[in-house]
Amino acid sequence: MSKSFDLKSKVALITGGARGIGAxxxxxxxxxxxxxxxxxxxxxxxxxxxxxxxQSGFSAIGMAAxxxxxxxxxxxxxxxxxxxxxxxxxxxCAAIQGPIGPIWENPAADWVAAIQVNLNGxxxxxxxxxxxxxxxxxxxxxxxxxxxxFSGGGATGPRPNFTSYxxxxxxxxxxxxxxxEELKPFGIDCNSIAPGAAPTRMLExxxxxxxxxxxxxxxxxxxxxxxxxxxxxxxxxxxxxNLTAFLGSSESDGISGRLISAQWDPWQDPAFADRLRKxxxxxxxxxxxxxxxxxxx
Length: 297
Description:
By secondary structure, the protein is of the alpha/beta class. It has 2 domains: about 10-200 and about 235-265, 3-Layer(aba) Sandwich (Rossmann fold); about 200-235, no CATH class. It is built from 9 helices and 7 strands; from the N terminus they run E-H-E-H-E-H-E-H-E-H-E-H-H-H-E-H. It has helices at about 20-30, 45-55, 70-85, 110-140, 165-185, 200-215, 215-230, 240-250, 270-275, and strands at about 10-15, 35-40, 60-65, 90, 145-150, 190-195, 260. The chain has a 7-stranded parallel sheet, sandwiched between helices. Helix 4 (about 110-140) links the parallel strand 4 and strand 5 (about 145-150).
């Protein structure tokens, strides 16, 4: 993709930005001129990634936070704004895999803990970003706010042996859709991103759990991802980097309340982007049955 989206001087917080997809998004945002903050549960991981970015000539800050703790989330947002200025973009990538295996074998405490991170942690970050952006909009100091929440496997269909993760990610999509309606009067766009499978630490956990616990399909998907990485020597995150850059930029203004796939949706097509701006069920969670679907677009 040749188009370069302008994020110059935009303040962006990227949760889960110390490794994997989050780190790749943070790098792209730095390349496009954003003032970037990353966070992780591990300060050492943040420091390591900031060092990598600085070696490439970029400036960014990193800080640790447990996103399942609303008090720590509030402190995180305060520190970002103290050091970089008022927040323009939230990219919420942080997530954990949760228990793997059939639901009757999942430890209840682990199942609930994953919901706490993957759903409640998303809510805490969305709420903090919304409060600050709405206040700036009301005061006339926010031209456009962008909130991007990462979806994942199980959001749009069953994902056996990953019930906690799937349930949380489906809820995240509807959370973004509903919040988008509330935020629309304030010029704040809120969308979900389906990044697609990638050889990250979470897929390593699928491999470690094995085909019996994860299920043959999930295990094969993970195996292919790592095989492709090993054969090429690197991981290509460009699809999700480009989509996240687009949705953080002014090029996507007016697209809100949508779930967009980095791998499968033709969002680069201006006609498709225009359809996303119009009232319709495109890019939303809905029931599809054997009756005729009327697309208002």
